[in-house]
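sry for the spam today, last one i promise. struct tokens for design, 461 residues
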């Protein structure tokens, strides 16, 4: 191991150790060992992997800190890999000299407004384990092209930019697991203008990633924020599972935000599975725009300023066995689907526990200008004004649901309401109870057939 103190680094937190670390890279053995201490640097320590050979950085079980007192990343790892994850595409000295650059058990703290933690460019099989990145601008910043990245057991905490930033990068095969990603002003995990495949976000605590702790103006962001509106960008083959994804509500904020411009020319975000997460306390908890082929199942989604789930301009979305609710009177609950098609909502529970309805005044499930929507086997309890509210929709099937108001007196106006223009809609085999007005409010122009519903006694006939 190259003990950086043997190359002149002091680790006293005051001396500039930049040149000593560069000396260790030039003349060491590739494994930089940081003994306990605080190593202040003022310029980026860059590793050109094709020249330096295999790289490892170790911070002695977390007892060492690198203090970045200049602009740019503390560490920049630069490779030459231009291929894919296919072994036959790996050329030159990538495997002998560049594979598996590893940084572990070290803290990187920013001491400059434009200090970043770590930047990756054209690397192959990078590994981050047990790294704390705090008070930087961006924590881990991936640009240009990278392959097979592993980030685990890390703390990406209180950075003024993005925690883990996939920034106009071509990246396949990345796993972000078992980490805390919190209090980052512009998002916990953010993807902008990138081409991403095979991303797994699993077993993390991702929370409070907005402006609230930074004394800055609000800016729309999310714990997980994906923007594919730039030409040529696309994000597909993604799993988000078994995370806690929570926040404080912020203007334009979300827990999970996935967006493609309506009618855009990129491949729409799709082949996503979002399952088994706890998601809560934002303006919109999950907000999908322009998506195609997303499964959202087995999540507990709670407490929104606007909607638990907002789907816009999307198709082939499966929403199954989720719990939608609020846990504080000042927040709301509910699902809204707008200008979308081929959506199923199955086995979900939607409950508004406030006696006076939602602050937004919205029904539990809203369908707007949408086509081929199936709602089955759901429970919609205590919705105001309605359990299900559809406007200008066609080929909507609502079957086998329980739509009740349990309050005395009832606050729900209608269990199901259809308004506007539509055709081919069906409301059947539902259990409906406890409304203050008609159980079913179906305008003639909406094209609705209602059959074999169990209605409250006051509404029969």
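last one done:
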């Amino acid at each position: 191991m190259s003990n950086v103190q043997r190359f002149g680094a002091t680790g006293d937190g005051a001396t500039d150790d930049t040149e000593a670390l560069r000396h260790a890279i030039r003349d060491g053995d590739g494994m930089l060992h940081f003994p306990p201490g605080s190593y202040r640097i003022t310029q980026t320590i860059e590793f050109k992997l094709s020249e330096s050979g295999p790289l490892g950085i170790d911070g002695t079980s977390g007892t060492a800190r690198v203090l970045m007192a200049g602009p740019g990343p503390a560490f920049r790892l630069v490779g030459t890999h231009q291929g894919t994850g296919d072994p036959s595409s790996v050329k030159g000295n990538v495997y002998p000299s560049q594979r598996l650059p590893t940084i572990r058990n070290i803290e990187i703290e920013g001491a400059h407004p434009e200090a970043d933690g770590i930047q990756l460019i054209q690397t192959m099989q990078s590994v981050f384990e047990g790294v704390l990145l705090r008070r930087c601008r961006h924590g881990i910043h991936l640009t240009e092209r990278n392959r097979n990245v592993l980030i685990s057991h890390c703390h990406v905490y209180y950075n003024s930019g993005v925690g883990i930033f996939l920034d106009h990068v071509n990246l396949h095969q990345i796993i972000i697991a078992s980490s805390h990603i919190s209090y980052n002003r512009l998002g916990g995990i953010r993807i902008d203008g990138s081409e991403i495949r095979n991303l797994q976000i699993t077993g993390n605590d991702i929370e409070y990633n907005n402006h609230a702790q930074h004394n800055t103006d609000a800016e729309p962001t999310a714990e997980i924020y994906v923007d594919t509106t730039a030409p040529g960008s696309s994000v597909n083959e993604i799993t988000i599972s078994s995370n806690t994804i929570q926040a404080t509500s912020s203007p334009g904020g979300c827990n999970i935000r996935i967006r493609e411009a309506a009618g855009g020319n990129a491949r729409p975000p799709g082949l996503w599975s979002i399952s088994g997460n706890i998601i809560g306390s934002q303006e919109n908890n999950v907000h999908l725009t322009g998506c195609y082929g997303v499964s959202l199942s087995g999540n507990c989604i709670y407490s929104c300023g606007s909607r638990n789930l907002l789907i816009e301009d999307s198709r082939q979305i499966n929403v199954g066995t989720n719990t939608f609710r609020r846990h504080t009177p000042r927040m709301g609950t509910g699902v809204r689907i707008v200008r979308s098609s081929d959506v199923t909502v199955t086995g979900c529970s939607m409950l508004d526990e406030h006696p006076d309805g939602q602050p937004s005044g919205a029904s539990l499930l809203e369908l707007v200008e949408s086509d081929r929507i199936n709602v089955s086997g759901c429970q919609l309890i205590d919705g105001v004004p309605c359990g299900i509210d559809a406007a200008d929709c066609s080929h909507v099937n609502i079957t086998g649901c329980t739509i009740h108001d349990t309050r005395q007196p009832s606050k729900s106006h209608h269990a199901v309401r259809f308004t506007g223009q539509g055709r081919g809609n069906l409301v059947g085999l539902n259990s409906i109870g406890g409304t203050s007005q008609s159980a079913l409010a179906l305008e003639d122009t909406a094209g609705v057939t209602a059959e074999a519903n169990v209605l409250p006694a006051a509404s029969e006939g």
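The longest strand covers residues 164-177. ok im logging off now
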